[in-house]
């Protein structure tokens, strides 16, 4: 029986030793059992099972007796470290191979092919903080500690992670005050096993108050194009500013979002200068300025499509970008009211963006788009011009405002040929805290859009509002099970359906809406609606590291009025899908059927694309 007492903290964290393999020996396999010592609680067993590599990888074999012995010896430290993390310092751990204590087995011992490993553990009692002190040296000013230290208080459970977290919080708090070189000098820990308490004193040296000094920029690119003075301005770092780690993080975020660099590294000098300034060093590596992409998608209901783009990331040295996009869709789709030559929908769009207008967080955008869209009973030919600004408030919040000009020509079986001219303002607010934009496991996404327009043909003042929210929740520890929920609402006021083009109205159906129903084929009016309500729920699970399954339910409704009433016919689609992870996002294959099909509805839908449905 080997006993470990909490006399020091050199064992915090997980340790491992270099494995030495005896390739001449037969592979060793094992069976492991972890049990509580006599009269000990099962809590120690739970902790040991969660931390033991031998327990979590029981199917693994070892090429030699030596390699198995080394791994078993390492289990003492792994389990003890896990117990420290939970505030248990009086543990007694026994690890035996074939009834022999591992610590007493000679290194040249040869084991049989199959061995039995028995781990017996007494986790011991919980220890609490007797003293939880913070001592600041070489500082004469006032000191105050907010309630940010969590459980690092007298009487709190003396978890080792609590001490480490307190140290990080203390250092971060001083750095936020401008003390760039604040550091932990030492940690004194004394355990009283009789009283079951731990006395801790953390000693911190804040150093000097620092101010940002000169920003030195190095561009390692073979053919540099970026203007370094512009990059210095975009960083937002100014000489003489009081040091703040948040400003450094914000500067790095600004430079990354430009999309110009393959690598950025912003580092501070090791020492503060005599005048209190802290020099900064920024190292950059530019990406190739030109790039392009191609994509394809397919639905048995809406046909197939191809899309592509070409982009220049840095036209004039200030990270200006020009992006050209094109798409053709509806290939193979059937539209009974139009001949085959009119079946395809296609789009061309040109977008110019200039970052850093007025402030480093404000971008100027102008875009032109031409679109020919074929719906079930309607052909729409649209021209769009947008001109305005986007402002990034933080990593997760942004807003935009554009002047919006539209020219729309429609042809349909209900209202015949019409021409519309629109002029107005488009504004939106976006919140995005997703951990991954193309395959989210946790986080929230929400966008509110308001579009106010004047239409010249019917002389209507029109307001169109949409609100969409998505939430993602990883259910298990490793996010292998994810629940995803989407809801979207839309409303148009100021005009009747007969006085609006289909491109401005709401439709449901399709791979991004209600799967199992064709796009623009569901809803009370197949010419579009003034009201929209949609929802989707997905349960995503990872079968392997690359393959996942999805089960989903979609619903949606559009209506002629500005509010939903009982006459509106909601469409529901249910189905399942397969996901295959790639570097650009998961490849999506979905199969869906309508839950409440009516005459003219499809029997099923099959969808292929890249990225999650939402």
Can you walk through the features of this model?
Helix 1 crosses helix 3. Helix content is 12%, strand content 45%. Residues 1-25 have low confidence and may be disordered. It has helices spanning 43-51, 53-56, 65-85, 160-176, 228-235, 245-257, and strands at 2-3, 29-36, 92-97, 100-101, 114-122, 128-136, 183-192, 197-205, 211-219, 261-268, 277-286, 290-299, 303-312, 321-331, 345-355, 362-374, 378-392, 397-412, 416-432, 443-455, 460-474, 481-493, 531-542, 547-559, 571-580, 587-594, 605-610. The strands form four sheets. The chain has a 16-stranded antiparallel barrel with strand order 12-13-14-15-16-17-18-19-20-21-22-23-24-25-26-27. Strands 1, 2, 3, 4 and 5 form a five-stranded mixed beta sheet that branches. It is mostly beta strands and 614 residues long. It has four domains: 2-122, no CATH class; 128-205, membrane protein fhac (Ubiquitin-like (UB roll), Roll); 211-286, membrane protein fhac (Ubiquitin-like (UB roll)), CATH 3.10.20.310; 290-610, membrane protein fhac: a member of the omp85/tpsb transporter family (Porin, Beta Barrel).
List keywords for this structure.
Ubiquitin-like (UB roll); 5-stranded mixed sheet; disordered N terminus; 4 domains; 6 helices; mainly beta; 16-stranded antiparallel β-barrel; 614 residues
Task: Describe the structure concisely for a colleague.
The chain has 614 residues and is mostly beta strands. It is 12% helix and 45% strand.
Going across the major beta sheet, what is the strand order?
12-13-14-15-16-17-18-19-20-21-22-23-24-25-26-27
CATH topology of the largest domain: Porin
Low-confidence stretches: 1-25
CATH top level of the largest domain is: Mainly Beta
Strand percentage: 35-45%
Largest sheet: 16 strands, antiparallel, barrel
- Domains, number: 4
**Helix fraction bin:** 10-25%
How confident is the prediction overall: mean pLDDT? 88
The fourth-level CATH homologous superfamily of the largest domain is membrane protein fhac: a member of the omp85/tpsb transporter family
User: What's the overall geometry?
Assistant: globular
């Amino acid at each position: 029986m080997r006993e470990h007492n909490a006399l020091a903290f050199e064992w915090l964290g997980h340790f491992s030793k270099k494995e030495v393999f005896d390739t001449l020996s037969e592979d060793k396999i094992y069976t492991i059992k972890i049990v509580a010592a006599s009269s000990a609680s099962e809590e120690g067993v739970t902790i040991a099972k969660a931390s033991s590599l031998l327990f979590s990888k029981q199917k693994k074999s070892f090429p030699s007796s030596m390699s198995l012995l080394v791994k078993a010896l390492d289990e003492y430290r792994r389990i003890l470290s896990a117990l420290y993390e939970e505030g248990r310092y009086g543990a007694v751990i026994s690890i035996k191979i074939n009834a022999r204590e591992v610590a007493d087995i000679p290194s040249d011992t040869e084991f049989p092919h199959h061995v039995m490993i028995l781990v017996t553990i007494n986790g011991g009692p919980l220890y609490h903080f007797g003293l939880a002190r913070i001592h600041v040296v070489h500082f004469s000013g006032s000191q105050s500690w907010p309630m940010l230290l969590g459980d690092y208080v007298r009487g709190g459970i003396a978890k080792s992670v609590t001490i480490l977290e307190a140290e990080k919080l203390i250092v971060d708090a001083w750095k936020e005050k401008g003390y760039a070189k604040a550091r932990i000098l030492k940690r004194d820990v004394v355990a009283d096993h009789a009283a079951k308490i731990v006395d801790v004193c953390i000693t911190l040296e804040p150093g000097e108050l620092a101010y940002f000094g000169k920003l030195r920029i190095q561009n390692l690119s073979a053919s540099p194009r970026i203007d370094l003075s512009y990059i210095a301005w975009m960083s937002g770092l100014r000489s003489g500013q009081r040091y703040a780690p948040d400003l450094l993080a914000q500067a790095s975020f600004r430079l990354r979002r430009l999309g110009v660099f393959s690598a950025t590294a912003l580092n501070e000098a090791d020492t503060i200068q005599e005048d209190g300034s802290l020099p900064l060093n920024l190292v950059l590596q530019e990406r190739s300025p030109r790039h392009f992409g191609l994509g394809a998608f397919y639905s048995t209901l809406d046909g197939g499509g191809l899309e592509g783009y070409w982009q220049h990331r840095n036209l004039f040295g200030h990270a200006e970008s020009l992006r050209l996009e094109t798409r053709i869709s509806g290939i193979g789709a059937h539209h009974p009211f139009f001949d085959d030559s009119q079946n395809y929908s296609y789009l061309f769009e040109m977008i110019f963006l200039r970052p850093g207008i007025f402030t480093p967080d404000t971008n100027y955008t102008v875009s032109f788009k031409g679109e020919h869209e074929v719906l079930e009973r309607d052909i729409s030919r649209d021209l769009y011009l947008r001109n305005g600004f986007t402002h990034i408030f933080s990593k997760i919040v942004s807003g935009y405002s554009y002047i919006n000009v539209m020219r729309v020509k429609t042809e349909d079986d209900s209202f015949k040929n019409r021409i519309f001219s629109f002029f107005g303002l488009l504004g939106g607010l976006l919140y995005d805290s997703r951990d991954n934009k193309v395959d989210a496991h946790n986080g929230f996404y929400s966008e509110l859009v308001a579009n106010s327009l004047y239409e010249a043909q019917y002389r209507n003042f029109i307001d169109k509002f949409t609100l969409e929210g998505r939430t993602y929740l990883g259910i298990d520890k490793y996010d292998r099970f994810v629940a995803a929920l989407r809801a979207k609402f839309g409303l148009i006021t100021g005009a009747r359906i007969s006085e609006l083009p289909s491109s401005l109205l709401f439709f449901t159906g399709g791979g991004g809406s209600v799967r199992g129903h064709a796009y623009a084929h569901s809803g009370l009016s197949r010419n579009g609606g003034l009201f929209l309500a949609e929802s989707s729920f997905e349960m995503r699970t990872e079968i392997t590291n690359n393959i996942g399954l999805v089960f989903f339910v979609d619903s949606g409704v559009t209506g002629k009025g500005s509010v939903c009433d009982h006459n509106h016919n909601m469409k529901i689609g249910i189905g399942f899908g397969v996901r295959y992870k790639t570097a650009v996002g998961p490849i999506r294959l979905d199969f869906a059927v309508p839950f409440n099909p009516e005459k003219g509805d499809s029997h099923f839908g099959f969808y292929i694309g890249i990225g999650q449905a939402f």
